[in-house]
Amino acid sequence: MHTKKTFFFTLALFISLTLCFSVVGVYGDSHSDDEAFNAAVKAVKERDYSRALTLFRQQANHAQHDAQYNMAVLLQAGKGLPRNYLDALYWGWLAQLGGIEEAEDLASDILDALTEDDVKAVRVRVGENLQSRLDNGDINAISQFANYHLSILEEPDHGTAYIWYSIAVALNIPNMTDRRDDTESEIDAKELARLQTEATELFEKYNFAQFKLKEPGVANEN
Hints:
Elements lengths: L4 E9 L3 E9 L5 H15 L3 H12 L4 H13 L7 H13 L4 H10 L4 H20 L5 H11 L6 H13 L6 H8 L4 H18 L16
Antiparallel strand pairs: 1-2
Helix pairs in contact: 1-2, 2-3, 3-4, 3-5, 4-5, 4-6, 6-7, 7-8, 8-9, 8-10
């Protein structure tokens, strides 16, 4: 495990629309992740956007959030494939939930171009992606699933978010206690016992392994 210096893209207007790079602090899981990401970056620099999309998609499908963000940027710009706001929003929201701050502005821009029904359909896709990761035992999806119910849904679902923040705290996932407690303050007392019971049932159903801090100097996923 080691730190990966990751590039993200912003759109810049020169003679024509091009993609340029800046550095953000996102961490990879292996040397192979670094190599795949760097190959995708190289493809963008060479304006081989089709290859870049192929490489980023492989990583994005494995919840690499920097790659998800770059997928969103390329699809929003129409580089490598015709412009596709639905897919760009999908990857942008997943990247946002994965901690890529730039993705929030990108998603906000895309929302203005889509109908309410389009946006609802993308919300469903994002939820299904996170649910699938949970079903496959991906502990890193827990906090993202909770955040999804607060920041992505049209109307925040504090109850479901509370359930998953509670599970995250029970598993020793960092920085979840305040989120759980803040969310609890938004819940009617009449609902609290039911939600806590449901959290316990889901905790036992999924039987996630306890979260373990990584070695010093190595980042944990959000």
